[in-house]
Design a protein that fits this description.
Elements: E1 2-8, E2 27-32, E3 36-37, E4 42-51, E5 54-58, E6 65-72, E7 75-78, E8 89-92, E9 97-105, E10 108-112, H1 115-124, H2 129-136, E11 144-158, E12 172-176, E13 187-194, E14 197-198, E15 203-210, E16 221-229, E17 235-239, E18 244-254, H3 258-264, E19 266-279
Parallel strand pairs: 3-11, 11-19
Antiparallel strand pairs: 1-16, 2-4, 4-5, 4-8, 6-7, 6-9, 9-11, 10-11, 12-13, 13-14, 13-17, 15-16, 15-18, 18-19
């Protein structure tokens, strides 16, 4: 397990364009304004793009998503956001328990201008095997295209927060096995699924923002970055540490189908799974 701690000052700003090119912005995640609310309160959450849990907030744009859902109890339904809503999620929650926000984005694309750009990304995400496969396939070293999809989730405590995260059928999905709001274990257990099956031996990035003053002020926040690897069952255990905001993320690369390649001119597809929660 590798550990990196950064103390820095964070700034948030809004951009009118929905862009998440991971050459510069390595993560897309859902971040509620409050991870713990009362029954009949509004659950408000931002969609964010950035790195190291420092991100831009974007207004809701329906065409950016194949699905953007909220799961309350046994019911999963689309969020009721409208074009331009900021925060992107603003839902009144009438039921007690653990609430799950989840999304599947529509495909976006980017072009790697240089070999260095591509290999830096692969190194950052533990995808070194792609370098060898890229060469085996006889692909160009520069000016080639990739398409990518995001699969973010977030857990929110409503009232008692009782309940558990569950599989929602996302192609690439994190499931938290330990309820971070009701179970007082020293670690939070989670597992990663690819097409419904455990994803073993996968590099995982964990970002933990610790609020030293106990408030939501981002200035002088401590960021702890940890790298883990899933076991043979796709499982990891994340230490609670000092609490705070957690983001668990993994990236998978696949070769696009012939049909996708012809339609998009992409030579790779990347898929990004993330899940966020907060421990007081």
């Amino acid at each position: 397990m590798k550990l990196k701690i950064v103390t820095t000052i964070f700034f948030l700003f809004f951009s009118p364009l929905f862009s998440s090119l991971h050459l510069n912005a390595h993560e897309f995640w859902i971040e509620p304004l409050k991870f713990e609310i009362k029954v009949n309160d509004k659950l408000m959450a931002h969609e964010k793009v950035g790195s190291n849990l420092k991100g831009n907030e974007y207004a809701y744009l329906a065409t950016s998503y194949k699905h953007f859902n909220i799961t309350v109890g046994d019911e999963t339904r689309p969020i009721k956001s409208r074009l331009g809503d900021l925060p992107a999620v603003n839902e009144k929650i009438k039921q007690d328990g653990l609430v799950i926000l989840s999304a599947v984005t529509t495909p976006s694309d980017l072009t790697y201008k240089t070999k260095t750009q591509f290999e830096t990304f692969l190194d950052d995400e533990g995808l070194e095997w792609v370098k060898k496969r890229h060469k085996e396939r006889g692909l160009p070293e520069d000016n080639f295209k990739e398409i990518y999809y995001r699969f973010p989730k977030s857990l929110v405590k409503v009232g008692s927060g009782k309940g558990h995260d569950k599989e929602l059928g996302l192609a690439f999905e994190w499931v938290i096995d330990t309820n971070p709001y009701t179970e007082q274990s020293s670690t939070i257990k989670a597992h990663l699924l690819w097409q419904g099956k455990p994803f073993a031996n996968k590099r995982v990035n964990i970002f933990n923002r610790v609020f030293k003053d106990g408030t939501n002020i981002l200035a002088n926040t401590q960021l702890i970055e940890t790298h883990l690897t899933t076991d043979s069952f796709g499982k990891i255990e994340v230490p609670r540490g000092e609490g705070g905001l957690f983001l668990i993320s993994a990236v998978h690369m696949i070769e696009p189908s012939i049909e996708t390649s012809k339609k998009t001119n992409a030579v790779w597809e990347s898929l990004w799974a993330s899940i966020s929660y907060r421990i007081p």
